[in-house]
Amino acid sequence: MIPEVQIAPHLHGKKIVIYSTCQDDWGGSEELWSRSIPYLNKGGKEVFVFKEKINESHPAFLRLKNDYHVHLKEVRPGYTQRIRSRIGRLLSPAQRTSHRRIPENLATENFFRALKKVRPELAIISQAINFDGLIFALQCLKLNIPYVIISHKAVDFYWPDYRDRDYMTLVWKKALQCFFVSRHNLRLTEQQFGFSLSNSQVVINPMKVSLTPVKYPSTSDGFRLACVGRLFLLDKGQDILLRILALDKWRKRPLEVTFIGAGVDYAGLTALKDYLQLNQVRFAGYREAGQIWSHYHGLILPSRSEGMPLVIMEAMAAGRMAIVTRAGGNAELVEDEVTGFTSEVNERDFDQAMERAWCRRADWEDIGLKASRSIRRMVPGVPEEEFVQNLNTLLYGTH
User: Fold this and answer.
1) N or C terminus: which one in the chain shows less Cβ crowding within 10 Å?
2) Where would I find the beta strands (DSSP E) of 203-320?
3) Residues spanned by the domain of 317
4) What tens digit of pLDDT does each residue of 152-194 get?
5) Residues 313, 193 share a domain
6) What SS3 state is found at 59?
7) Beta bridge partners of 298
């Protein structure tokens, strides 16, 4: 149930546009903006959601459309002939000379036209990574529409194209606010672009589970860990875990690992599992967060890159210890040897973290309870409500 939100009368009847760059039907990066919509509705906002492709049969989009009357709009991807740039007047003379391209395409042009027609009071640009939505924020800037940016991930080895830095820098600096889901993502973004974002703020993603610990399962038949997330090797690093589990010491231990989730690398991962003859590994497909933790003793996450994984927060809330890499904001959540176990992003260090965890397997339940108490202190009661209050403050100077 959504708590009552006090909205000033003069905020009613306004339009909000949300652009999401998430390429999947639905992902963790959709949670913050989507769960904010009921609060925006209570303020009388008419909400338009744009993506390159929208699966309107997905339960989350069905709910947004049917329960909250959200307008769902697709913008077609695909590059076309060079679209005349409207950015020239926004750049300094030096930038006009140095910038070589504005990578606009059918999607950005269609979004520009939609913005011009809708004329929202605010646009929310939700980026899956810390620069893949800036071209859409640029369309807002061209039309003098206030916008905020939410960045859900930043990757050490994935930097913006050097030809795009001028317009991206301008977009960052002109935003009403730049929201990041972890301090790591904010810090890395500042390093990648070479300036401090004074208009920045770290926000918490809302969880899909209760903050009440789930009963710890019996260990009489061994220990079970869940590796929860998209089956996408570049980010989630499941291959790292499979190669570790192929070591003789792990084959001999009463430990089972289940991969929960779906994704493009399913075939590659199951082929690797069969090649390595890992009988202690299972693939369970997608499951709702609330259905997982009564069956597993902990979370294991060998990520190469992250933002602030909801799955860690949800596992901790359920009273489960986590073995994770220090990618993204993971180590901002998990305190090594206290609420879980952390490692650098490589096989040797992750194996050592797993070994340290295994030596303390008798303590996993107690560690999980500490994790639950820790996450309750970190997460505000309703993060999405706090986010909307931030937006109202930015626009009107009031909650």
Assistant:
1) N
2) 223-228, 255-260, 281-285, 298-301
3) 223-378
4) 999 998 999 999 999 999 999 999 999 999 999 999 999 999 9
5) no
6) helix
7) 225, 321
